[in-house]
Specification:
The complex is a heterodimer of chains A (about 120) and B (about 110). By secondary structure, chain A is mostly beta strands. Chain A is globular, with a radius of gyration of 14 Å. Chain A starts with a strand and ends with a strand. In chain B, the strands form two sheets. In chain B, strands 2, 4, 5, 9, 10 and 11 form a six-stranded mixed β-sheet that branches. A five-stranded antiparallel β-sheet of chain B has the order 1-3-8-7-6, with no helix packed on it. In chain B, a hairpin with a 5-residue loop joins strand 9 and strand 10. Classes of the chains: A mainly beta (about 120), B mainly beta (about 110). At the A-B interface, strand 5, strand 9 and strand 10 of A face strand 4, strand 5 and strand 9 of B.
Chain lengths: ~120, ~110
Amino acid sequence: GAVVSQHPSWVICKSGTSVKIECRSLDFQATTMFWYRQFPKQSLMLMATSNEGSKATYEQGVEKDKFLINHASLTLSTLTVTSAHPEDSSFYICSARVAGADSYNSPLHFGNGTRLTVT
Amino acid sequence: GQQLNQSPQSMFIQEGEDVSMNCTSSSIFNTWLWYKQDPGEGPVLLIALYKAGELTSNGRLTAQFGITRKDSFLNISASIPSDVGIYFCAGQSYGNKLVFGAGTILRVKS
């Protein structure tokens, strides 16, 4: 159980275009999903917390107009990288926590990540 | 902010050896988690710990939640080639965000 599916697994786009990444919880509902960014050989850096039905909460230094997050349902959150530039090339990973009374203490389950390359 | 110190940064061991890695923090956590990440994939949860002093096993893996709630260790017994990967510890305070360690790169020599 607790499977998180992320799509696409990799994408190559031209500079200036936008890319949308989907994160789905397949067998559970997630009121909260998290988006991380990971550079090679480094740890995961939290970008934003996606809340179903409300605005996302962005970490300091993360541009909300650059990284648009939509969490329209309890099983889907999307991250759109707008006007992508080569420096946006990275590994983006989403995660979700099972919704429930004690969900805030339950572990995060991660998707398989999306490798974005901007040329 | 909260930070985790994970060590060692990397390990290169012989197949069959036991492995130990740990995380420490200056802050108290309510939950300690251990993840493994293979190249090009997302982290996979190995063990979750919820109580101070808790010792939990998952196959050849054993992890403990430190009694002070400021540290945790992960042991891998009788390592095999597929244990290769990056291991991350993560701590969470009640209702707060997950904080990750920098990771331990494990390489196994067969």
